[in-house]
């Protein structure tokens, strides 16, 4: 068993690894990966690859394969959401963070699996990837933070070999913008998406939140996903397949 917590990418990232064996090297590699991602992809660091590209100091042909992949994901979710999800808004610099976190954490989970880890929970500020069961027949239990009560949860979900992401205004205020208008998103308090991977879950949660009320049906219609959404009238919307912990 291995546990580790570090403050990276502006948020706490924790790993609860239940497999027996020596995973010290890959765990070190995982957290080194997060530090590398922060250095290369943060729009808040002047010397990051993202910032240099945004200032025109790098051409598209000079970008790393990783950043090209991230930008392709941003373009895909912008198209899918009709422009509500957008990495670049008029008057603002390039900010791919809404894709980068889920992409980086999913890549880290894949690194762990490649080295034989089969039972773990990787949590990045509430966005979670799980593998296996911590006890036979018992899935991981993932709490979804209450949108108005910082010390409470509004639901506890079961997760085996999947990902859960939540977008809400509680961490950074009204930081999620509707890319169609450039103004803070309204209509929803919290959007949680359960999917097979964190790239999908995180991007869909952000896009649905940006879309406002219309994001409820839009997210519910995404294939192979389940949702838990609290609107600004405090109504709860969830799909029938959502696995609530008993």
UniProtKB/TrEMBL annotation:
Q: Does the keyword Magnesium apply?
A: yes
Q: Which cofactor does it need?
A: Mg(2+)
| Coiled-coil ranges per UniProt | none
| Molecular function (Gene Ontology), one example | transferase activity
According to its UniProt record, the EC number is: 2.7.1.180
Q: Which SUPFAM superfamilies match?
A: ApbE-like (SSF143631)
Q: Which keywords annotate this record?
A: FAD, Flavoprotein, Magnesium, Metal-binding, Transferase
Give the catalytic activity: L-threonyl-[protein] + FAD = FMN-L-threonyl-[protein] + AMP + H(+)
Gene3D superfamilies (UniProt xref): ApbE-like domains (3.10.520.10)
Q: Which PANTHER family match?
A: FAD:PROTEIN FMN TRANSFERASE, THIAMINE BIOSYNTHESIS LIPOPROTEIN APBE
The entry's protein name is: FAD:protein FMN transferase
What is the organism field in this record? Answer: Amycolatopsis plumensis
